[in-house]
Structures are given as C-alpha cells and as structure tokens.
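Input set for joint prediction.
Command: fold jointly, output tokens.
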Amino acid sequence: MQLDAKIPGGPLETKWDRHRFDLKLVNPSNKRKFEIIVVGTGLAGGSASASLAELGYNVKTFCIQDSPRRAHSIAAQGGINAAKNYPNDSDSIWRLFYDTIKGGDFRAREANVYRLAQVSNLIIDHCVAQGIPFAREYGGLLANRSFGGAQVSRTFYARGQTGQQLLLGAYSSLMRQVAKGQVTMFPRREMLDLVLVDGQARGIVVRNLITGEIERHTAHAVVLATGGYANVFFLSTNGTGCNVTAAYRCYKKGAGFANPCYTQIHPTCIPVHGEYQSKLTLMSESLRNDGRVWVPKKAGDTRRPEDIPEGERDYYLERIYPSFGNLAPRDISSRAAKRMCDDGKGVGPTGRAVYLDFRDAIQRLGQPEIEARYGNLFQMYERIVAEDPYKTPMMIYPASHYAMGGLWVDYNLMSTIPGLFVLGEANFSDHGANRLGASALMQGLGDGYFVIPNTINGYLAGTKFAEVSESHDAFQESEAEVVAKVKRLLGIKGKRTATDFHRELGHILWEYCGMGRTDEGLAKARKLVADVRAEFWENLTVPGSAADLNQSLEYAGRVADFLEFADILILDALARRESCGAHFNEAFQTEEHEALRDDVNMSHVAVWEYAGEGKEPIFNKEPLNFEFVKLATRSYK
Amino acid sequence: MSSKSINLTLKVWRQQGSKAPGRLETYKAENISTDASFLEMLDIVNERLILEGKEPIAFDHDCREGICGMCGSVVNGRPHGPEKETTLCQLHMRHFRDGDTVVIEPFRAKAIPVVKDLVVNRSALDQIIAAGGFISVNTGQAPEANSLPVPKDKADLAMDAAACIGCGACIAACPNASAMLFVSAKISQFALLPHGRPEAAKRALSMVAQMDAQGFGNCTNHQECEAECPKGISISNIARLNREFIKAALASAEELPVAAKKE
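tokens >
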C-alpha cells in the first residue's frame, strides 16, 4: 500500500496557500461536466455538498435518514473552536494548532492540523453570514467560552445546541443548491458498496431503504462523510443509526483504515442504568467551565452528596491537574474517573459514577446565570435521571463518544483509492490520538467548506476518466454481492436478534478495549469477538423481507460490519506498543498513571490494509515527522 | 433514580405501506423499567416480536436525545406524548402507571403521509426549506464575523426560533394540519438577524407559497402547535411570519410566486 501523504514542503504557515496554487484547476465551464457523489449529510457531507455545488459541480448526495437535516452532528452541544482571539487572551492560529497537536498527544500531521487552525476563522465568518444565531455579548458581538485542553476562550457556541445550528446552516445551503438543481438529494439510501473502475472510485451501490431496491449511481469522484464508529461499543453517545458500514466497505475495496484504536471515551455522560438501555447521553464538556468534579475521599462512602462535608471531598481533577483543573482534556479526565471508581470511590447505585457539582457556581453566579448557560442540559439530565441538578450534583461517567481513527487520507483528503475522498469524523486526519472539545465541528466544516472544494479540482483536472455507465460490469458485480449479503442475512433464521449480538460485542470491547487495555485482555477480546461473529452468521434472526422498509435488516447489516471491524480495532490496539491519548495500554504508563508514549518507535500512523476474506490484515505505517513543534510530555499539571 | 417495573397494554398503528390499509393492533409491554425511555420500551417490545417471528413496529429514531427530530408519534392523542417540551425519545416510562393502555399512532396529515407503521414522509418540509429557508451566501463570500453586530435580545429570539427540530409535531397537533409553526420558526430566525434582511420579502413569499403547494392547511390560531412543540417554539413566530408576509406582499417589489409542488 502506497502511503504518500503529499504534504507540501516549505514553511508551515504557507503550505496550504502554496498547495492551492500548485493544484490544477477546473475551469468554471468544465465543472458542470463532472459528477460528484457525496455520502452522508452531517457537517462534513452537508457543507461539502453545498460548496461543491456552488462551484458548479453536479452533486448527488445520499443519506440514510429521512432528511439531510438529521445527521448526528446535530447532537454536538458545546461549541466550535476558532482562533479569532476576540477575548484578547493571546490566542492565535499557532496556538490553536499547537493545542490541537498536543491535545492529540503528538500523533497527528502538523500540516493538516495547521491548515485546520487556519480555516477555523473562515468557518465562523461563513456560519455567521448563514444566519446562525451564535451567542452574543450585550454589545452585539460574538461571545466565547472555554473548553477542555485550552487555557484560552476560543469556543463559539449557540446555547447547548451548537451542532444543531451549524448543521442546519449547512443543510440550508445544501437545500438552496437542491432548489437550483445543482444537488440531487437521495434520502433514505444506505451505501452498501463502493464501485471501482480501473482502480478509480466511480460510483456506489445503495439500498433504497423504503422500497428495498438496490440502486447504482455513477460519478467521477466519491466523497465519503459517513461519520465515526463509536457505536462499535454498542452503548455510546452516538445516534442509533451511526455505523461503520460505508467506511468498512471502502476498506474492503482497498482503502487503508488508519488508527482504529483511537476511540474517544468522553468523561461527562449520564451513567449506564439498565440492560435495555439503547444509548448514553452526553452532558456537554462546557459544563466543566463551572461544574466541579469530585468523589468522596473515603472509599465506599454511601452518604448523600449533600451530607459529605467539604473536607471529605476529593476534587481530584483540581488536585492532580491544578493548571487545567476541571478542564483537563477528555482522555485524561476519563481515565481519572475510571481510576477513582476502580479505587472504590465511585458513587451512585452502580459505583461507576463521579459527581459534577454546580453548588459553588450557583453560589457565585446565581441560579439564573447557570440556567442561561446550561439550562437545556440541566433539563435533559433531569428528564433522564429524575433528579434536579440545581439541588444535587450530577452523576457522570465516561462513555464512547468519538472516533479519531478512520479511513486514511492524504493532505488532499483522498484515501488510498484514487477518487475516494473522506471527510469529517470518517477520516483519521486531524485529531491524532485524542480530540479536544469543540474541534469536531471545526474539522467537519473545515473539510467540507474549505478543503475539499480546493483539493478535488486537482484530482479531477489531472485524471483521465473512462466512460462509465451503470451497466458496467463492476456495478453488476457489486450489486450481486450486495444482494447476496442481504439474502444471507435474511436466510439464517436463527434465534438471536442483531441487537443481542451488538450488545455482546459492545460488552467485550468496553471491558477489554475501552479506557484501559492490556495485551492479555486484547488477545482475549479478539477471540471472543471471533466467536460472536461466527455465531452471528449461524444464529441471527432477521424478520420481514428485503422488498420494503425493514429496519431490522438495515441494522443487521451494520452489526455484521461492526463485528468484522472490531477485529482491526483490537489488532491496532495490540500493535501500538505505547500509550498515547485515548489509547491506554496499562503496560505503558508513568508512575502517576499517565500515558507513556514511545516517540522513537511509535511516532507513526498505523494503516490497515484488507488482505481478503479470513486473512490477517496487512499493517502499513506512515511516519509522522515533526518539523515545527517539539515533542513533549503532555502535561496538564 | 428509583426504578420499578410496570406492565402496559399497547395499541399500535400497523400499516404495511403507504397505500395499504392500517389498523390498531394490541401488544403487551411487560416488565418495563420506569427508567426506560418510551423508545426503549418500544425496543423491548420489538425484540420480543422478532423472537416470536413477527415483524417489529417500524418507527423513526436516531439521536435519542431530543435534537435530531427523527422520532415522534402520537401517544394517547398527543404528539410526543404527555410531557411538556419533551420529544418521544426523552419521554420516560416513569410518567406512565402500571396497567395503563397506551395508544400509539403516526403523525397524521395529508402532506406527511405514512410510509410504514409509525414512520412518515416529511420531505415536504425539506421542500419548504429549499424554497427559501436559507441566506444566499456562497462559501468564501462572508465578511468578517464581527463586522455586523447583532443586538443580544434579537440574537436570543432568533435562537429561540432556530431551536425547531423539524419533527412535524406541530402539523400533527394542528386541526388544519398546518405547518405554520415550522415555517414561521425559520422565517423568524432570519427576519430577526440583519444578515437575513436582504432576502426577507422573497423568503416569506416563497416559503409560504411552497407550504401551500405541499398541501398543508392554514393557521386559524388554535395554538395546539405551540402546546405540543417539543422545543417550545412560540406562536409569536407565526405573528412575525404574518407581518413579514404582509409587508412582502403589499410593500415590496417582490412578485407573489406561484409554487408548484416539488417532490
């Protein structure tokens, strides 16, 4: 597998400008001769569809939901980072770049991250012009708040609904292009295969989720923006529809899968409460601006939180990480919570929770101010838990939230398959081993609004395309495979549901491949997952037919892919002989239980290549070269 | 959390396809934890149906935290069920009593027809947005973000309106099956912001015309939409829409568009 990242040379600050100058252009009248498929309508897919259509390309956009306004980007709560430095607190593009590289534990590419910081300000400009109602100060100017891993206030927000507002902005721009006929929208379609002709991505095969028909769609390039795979853990903060299927099918067609073991476990989620539970709910990291995290000092303390005096509480984040305190990054905070609970200091009915307490903030600022800042989050908490967080501390625990890993892409966001571009959470590019808060929205929109509209021209202008129609052999073969797989799922007629298998997979991964990993545990998990996978294909039951809306069938297909994908996740965790960011192998830790990196041997992107059914995937690596920042131990003390 | 188990009788609308006749079928939902959400209760019932070799109840859902707008059914006659400002996915079973009978039906309106069971087709709402629910700015054209200040009270009101999740509960609640609350929320958001003013007249006329073309009814001030909206969108937005529409129709140079229904 060739892994040429195509990073432009020269000074970091001018790489992107120079690269854009060097890329070939497609003149405006030629753009209308090209068709581009975009799969997914979250922040990355929605913004890419709109921007590519604005340039004059013919865009065909697909999503599994009933409308392109629903993708799970919509659930992002807290905010979006940008290097505007409006608060005059010494922020800069360089600082945003450095914080993001450091936050990712020095496992991301410098050039990509610097570009992300550069376009961050353009994103805010564009979103404001789209009419997104960002929070404002009394003078009418934009407000900022702080997020984890940063000592400056650079996060822009729209109450606790920033993702919703940004997504609706991208959606409105997309629908404007639909009205112009520049985008054709295909909702309720699930991509089930990527079609290659002469080694190039030339189309996709999708299932119409309403009629069950298998459809073929051709294009000159395919842009994949299908999100992350956090649902491999079964319980996560992701929407129930989030899945790895499209990305995994591309992997099986030859796209390298990078760093699958980097899975973010978010520290502030509502704890698990029952076996029937279908998802975990995030409580925005922004809450840690004012909330204080603590556990009782004494293990096994069952008193109510109000009855535990100040001196018997351990505000452990403030104690261990005094300079970042409650705003320590996600991986660090999550592991600290796990350690507290492992030591028997956890609270709540299961002992797997810590307190997030607003008592002091309410005393300092008054309840109305706290309501204005976090009202909708407090309300959401009360609905789920039936306790009033204004009166008693919230209980929180880490949960699977985000995938830093994803399909490998070069600086142009093109995968190892020519013509297949991957954006947003679906790619691996910018967050290294750990993503900072308020950076996912920035990356999704940066990729869609500002990167792909530039880099795709270079590919389209510099590539020779054969005439390809939907009746091409490659489409026929692909459709036959898809149909066979659907038939196979329906034909097993066993005794267990897809949910049941998915839950079992999730338990295994959470136990052995979650916040703390060991070689023995990972090896065991690999075996256990293989057993579940084998049983799945013998004992699954899927009701109904393939000829209409069949949600059980859709879901079974996704679980089948999760079961295969889990293997490369575990393999990758085994192969990374260090701890970094969200990947924590207990064999590699400092005396203070912090992650211990190995920069000499492990400063690379791990890229997995499909080798065929039943064969061990092939390991490739892209070395990471740090020319502009000095690798340092990541300290938040 | 004090959790207990309850038993319910469900009467659920089953309809095989958009053209097939539908009927209410009765199911037992037994041993349901009061900490479960309404959709988790349906999950449990569906798991049991699958194991009995029956087709599970089709319903739309995704985020399960009240923001994506995918879910929504009429529960005991009320869109999203009995709790105020609560989507169906955020409704918890502790609000039901042991032995209750719960009737679950799809959102019903001509313009958002049933696809299967509780799943409806809301693409008419996308068409209304396509008709004008945007500010015409191409990527790259925007001026510096702080170059146009927005009074905080206006920004807050715009955010109140922008909180709409496009679920369609307002339509299901309205005796006229009107989409006025949905349309007015988007029109208000942009009308309140200086960035949205240049196209305000055109937007109001086009979106209302498309709303009519899609077959939604008119507003006759029943206020059911506001009462059932899971995001608490105020009908003062409808008043603002009416002002914007009248201003546009009488005092602007924009012509009244004749919209055709788009699929």
